[in-house]
Design goal:
Residues 4-72 form the RNA polymerase sigma-70 region domain. GO terms for molecular function: DNA binding; sigma factor activity. This is Sigma-70 family RNA polymerase sigma factor. One of its GO terms (biological process) is DNA-templated transcription initiation. The protein has 168 residues and is an all-alpha fold. The protein has 2 domains: 2-69; 86-162, Arc Repressor Mutant, subunit A, CATH 1.10.10.10. Helices cover 78% and strands 0% of the residues. It is built from 7 helices and no strands. Helix 2 (23-42) crosses helix 3 and helix 6 packs across helix 7 (141-162). The protein is globular. It starts with a helix and ends in a 6-residue tail after the last helix. 12% of the residues are buried.
Length: 168
C-alpha cells in the first residue's frame, strides 16, 4: 500500500485538481481515494492492481461526483434557506444536521429504481395524484401505488437508521 501511495499520490492529486479546479479539494479527495482502497483491503476484498491508475481514477471519479452532488444539494438548500425570513432560520448545528439528512435522502433516492424514484418525486415534490403520475409514467394507478409503497418502505428504513433503531 505504501508503494501504491508513493508511486501514484502526486499523479492522482493532479488528476483530481484538473477535474475540480481546486487544489485543497484535490488533496482531500486523493486522501479519501487511498482511504477507500485501504478500507476495501481491510475487509479482505482482493484488490488487483494491474492498472493502479485506472483503479484509483475510477474510485476518485466516484468521489468527485459524490462531492459535486453534495455541493449541489447544499447550494439548493442554502438558496431555499436564504429565502426564509430570519425568524425561521436555524442554528449552524441544525443546518449541519439538515444537510446531512438531505444527503442521506438524496443517496436513498439514488438507490431506488428510476420509475420508483420518479413516482415518489412526482407525488412528494410536485404533489401530483396517482392518476396524473400514472399518465406521466405511462403505467397503471395500481403500479404507481406499488412504486410509492416501495419508496415509502425505503424512507421508513432511512428514518429508522437515522433514529438509531436499525444497526448494521
Amino acid at each position: 500500500m505504501h508503494r501504491l501511495y508513493a508511486d501514484h499520490h502526486g499523479w492522482l492529486q493532479g488528476w483530481i485538481r484538473r477535474k475540480t479546479g481546486c487544489s485543497q479539494r484535490a488533496a482531500d479527495l486523493a486522501q479519501d481515494t487511498f482511504l477507500r482502497v485501504l478500507t476495501v483491503r481491510a475487509k479482505g476484498i482482493a484488490v488487483y492492481l494491474d492498472q493502479p491508475r485506472t483503479y484509483l481514477a475510477t474510485i476518485a471519479r466516484g468521489l468527485v461526483i459524490d462531492q459535486w452532488r453534495r455541493l449541489q444539494l447544499e447550494q439548493a438548500w442554502l438558496e431555499a434557506l436564504a429565502a426564509q425570513p430570519e425568524a425561521v432560520q436555524s442554528s449552524p448545528e441544525q443546518l449541519a444536521l439538515i444537510l446531512e439528512t438531505l444527503q442521506q435522502v438524496d443517496a436513498l433516492l439514488l438507490c431506488l429504481p428510476a420509475r420508483v424514484r420518479r413516482a415518489f418525486l412526482l407525488a412528494q415534490i410536485d404533489g401530483l395524484p396517482y392518476r396524473e403520475i400514472a399518465v406521466e409514467l405511462g403505467v397503471s394507478e395500481r403500479m404507481v401505488k406499488k412504486y410509492l409503497a416501495q419508496a415509502f418502505l425505503h424512507c421508513a428504513v432511512l428514518e429508522a437508521e437515522l433514529d438509531g433503531v436499525l444497526v448494521e
